[in-house]
Amino acid sequence: MQPSSHTVHTHATHAAPTLQPLQGIRILSLALNLPGPAALLRCHRMGAQCSKLEPLATASPSADPMHAYSPVAYAQLHDGITLLQANLKTEAGQALLHQQLAQTDVLLTSFRPSALGKLGLEWDSLHTQHPQLCMVRIFGSTQPAEADHAGHDLTYQAEAGLTDHGQLPASLFADMTGAVMASEAVLQVLMARARSTEGHCLDIGLAQAAQWLALPRQWQMTTAQGDVGGAHAGYRMYRCQDGWVALAALEPHFALRICQVVGLADCNGSVQQMRTPAVHAAIETFMQHHRRSHIAAMAAQSDIPLHLIADQPE
């Protein structure tokens, strides 16, 4: 079967940024699932000319697992991306790959180190063949002893302490943060190449991305004793008559305003007062006796950070 190519066109949900720092840059991705395509899309929105080389598909239009478990996500992630297909374990596939690499500025991968070796994609070898090529490698972990371990977003979040009480996380935070770090790494290697005139390689670890996200918890900011973990009465979720609101009156001037709305004349909005059970109870009681629309109107009038949460599940 011969290599094939096509371009996916869907309606983008975000306008491209006015700055196009990657305009004229060509990026080739071999990365499947979420982090690689998300990073590639970020680069495309920064002006890069982006292509993705996927394994040959048989039973479906794409061999990327993302297409099977979320076709909507796959379509959005590949908006404007040129898609190629080839078997990199064959001579024809390798020929297509190196034909592409000869005109590529940055190669993006998400294979484990052992898989990169089997495909002849070790950095030293690529750098010898394509001296100006840069490379960004997304691994499960940048720790050498763990880089070849199997893992996914859920295991990286669990390892970083971001999962609670057996509940699945609200989003794929490690994958999406890893994608942001990978697109940042693309900028880094290109800046380094501009100074040295030769290609550079950077590694991004999804485990390290989760650990970066977990820093506020390690600092105990988001634990139950932390002021953004529920200890501060101005920074909490509250039940109202008809649903929930998210209140983020953390700074003293915001906290003072919610106290004034609630009727706590003696509260000055200090962190110490906002931690007291009396202030928590007063705001809870106030919220429970009003509808969300009424609370939102008062918050808007007093310039208090508050968001209505629609259909919050029990």
TrEMBL record:
<keyword id="KW-0808">Transferase</keyword>
<dbReference type="InterPro" id="IPR044855">
    <property type="entry name" value="CoA-Trfase_III_dom3_sf"/>
</dbReference>
<dbReference type="Pfam" id="PF02515">
    <property type="entry name" value="CoA_transf_3"/>
</dbReference>
<dbReference type="InterPro" id="IPR023606">
    <property type="entry name" value="CoA-Trfase_III_dom_1_sf"/>
</dbReference>
<protein>
    <submittedName>
        <fullName>CoA transferase</fullName>
    </submittedName>
</protein>
<dbReference type="InterPro" id="IPR050509">
    <property type="entry name" value="CoA-transferase_III"/>
</dbReference>
<dbReference type="GO" id="GO:0016740">
    <property type="term" value="F:transferase activity"/>
</dbReference>
<dbReference type="InterPro" id="IPR003673">
    <property type="entry name" value="CoA-Trfase_fam_III"/>
</dbReference>
